[in-house]
Amino acid sequence: MLTDAAPRPLPGAPRVAPPPGATDSHAHAFGPFATYPPGPSSYPVPETPADRYLAMLDAVGLSRGVLVQPGPYAQDHTVLVEGLRAAGGRLAGIGVARPDVSDGTLYRLAEAGVRGLRFIEPRSPSASAPPGSVGAAALEAFAPRLADLGWHAQLWAGAADCARWGTMLAERGVPVVFDHLAQPDVGAGVDAPAFREVRALVEAGVAWVKIPVCRVGTAANGFAEARPFHDALLEANPDRLLWASDWPFVRLDDRVPDVGELLDLFRSWTPGPEWERILVRNPARLYGFPELGAA
């Protein structure tokens, strides 16, 4: 296994505090390695257990978060489930499973706070899927089971595959969440046919999109490459957007951003009412977080 011994520093607070109930909709937990060593990985894995993630949320004023099962743990959800149970309702989860998973396993994950399954497709013909991931071809078999559980599918893929599989899931009544701005072709721009199809699914309310910027733009450029896609999706349907940090930023090497600064950037790109909607109301509805003040 590849591990990264350097701890992720806690970020600085954003200039404007997030509203109560604000949620980070995408992060990963790894370790502690002495108890839960990760399996094979194509990237160095940082030791960032769930309690460190909660400390990160506290540092930037976020109330809630979503832990996504990372590839190095494959279908072993122990770290994810223990993190959810220890968080006192602050966290929801997204799992990874093959089609041969038992119903009992899925029900146990649901009881722990898992709300969907993630699927990954390579974003280019020359790329390969990360070890431990499950490809989008499994979506066909999983669609009825996701519907029965009231879960959604989370898909990390290029925009063309997002449009293809998102359309299939919409026809089967299964919500879909696209990772990383639906991974658009930056060079082709917002008018590329694949991204227009993604935007149409969002506008129709049948697809959601997580809008972290670190896999689309570059920190050195202020993530400006991501701005047109952010704006296009915001115009299409702000009720279907989810803010996400992508902490602890695996595979970004020395380009690890600061979550407080990412929140400030999101605030600067997003009008006031939509800022609160995307940070608070949208994730509460999708992940089933209780209303603020509810017992």
How is this structure best described in words?
The protein has 295 residues and is of the alpha/beta class. It has a single domain (20-287), classed as TIM Barrel (Alpha-Beta Barrel). Helix content is 35%, strand content 14%. It contains nine helices and ten strands. The chain has helices spanning 50-60, 78-86, 103-112, 139-149, 159-171, 193-203, 227-236, 259-269, 272-287, and strands at residues 3-4, 23-27, 45-46, 64-68, 91-95, 114-120, 152-156, 176-178, 207-210, 241-242. The strands form two sheets. An eight-stranded parallel sheet has the order 2-4-5-6-7-8-9-10, sandwiched between helices. It has a two-stranded parallel ribbon with strand order 1-3. Helix 5 (159-171) runs parallel beside helix 6 (193-203). The longest helix has 16 residues, at 272-287. The termini are far apart. The model has no long low-confidence stretch (mean pLDDT 93). Residues 1-45 are annotated as: Disordered. This is Amidohydrolase family protein. Residues 24-289 form the Amidohydrolase-related domain. Pfam families: Amidohydro_2 (PF04909). It comes from Plantactinospora sonchi.
